């Protein structure tokens, strides 16, 4: 069985926490989603942000870029 591709990160900004998840979807495409979290647990699976990619390298690059955004730019992404 092949191990599933999945990158995760929690981020704290202004007293709120966010879970950033990038994974493959049934081997067809890749997706990055951001969810609200608290104490490193997702509190609502209704995504605050979502994007899809055709290739794993695109998903990896996007995940890294999102994690490296300034707090201000990260919050703009969620608008």
Description:
By secondary structure, the protein is α+β, with helices and mostly antiparallel strands. It contains two helices and five strands; from the N terminus they run E-E-E-E-E-H-H. It has helices at residues 56-68, 71-77, and strands at residues 6-13, 16-25, 29-38, 41-42, 49-53. Strands 1, 2, 3, 4 and 5 form a five-stranded antiparallel sheet that branches. Strand 3 (29-38) and strand 4 form a beta hairpin.
Summarize the amount of helix as a percent range: 25-40%
Q: How many angstroms separate the termini? A: 39 Å
Largest sheet: 5 strands, antiparallel
State mean pLDDT (0 to 100 scale): 94
- Percentage beta strand: 35-45%
Specify Rg, calculated over alpha carbons. 13 Å
What is the gist of this entry?
The chain has 79 residues and is an alpha+beta fold. 25% of the residues lie in helices and 44% in strands.
């Amino acid at each position: 069985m092949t191990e599933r591709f999945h990158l995760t990160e929690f981020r704290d900004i202004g007293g709120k926490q966010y879970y950033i998840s990038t994974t493959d979807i049934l081997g067809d495409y890749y997706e990055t989603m951001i969810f609200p979290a608290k104490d490193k647990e997702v509190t609502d699976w209704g995504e605050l942000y979502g994007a899809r990619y055709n290739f794993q390298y695109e998903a990896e690059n996007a995940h890294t870029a999102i994690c490296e955004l300034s707090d201000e730019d990260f919050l703009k992404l969620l608008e």
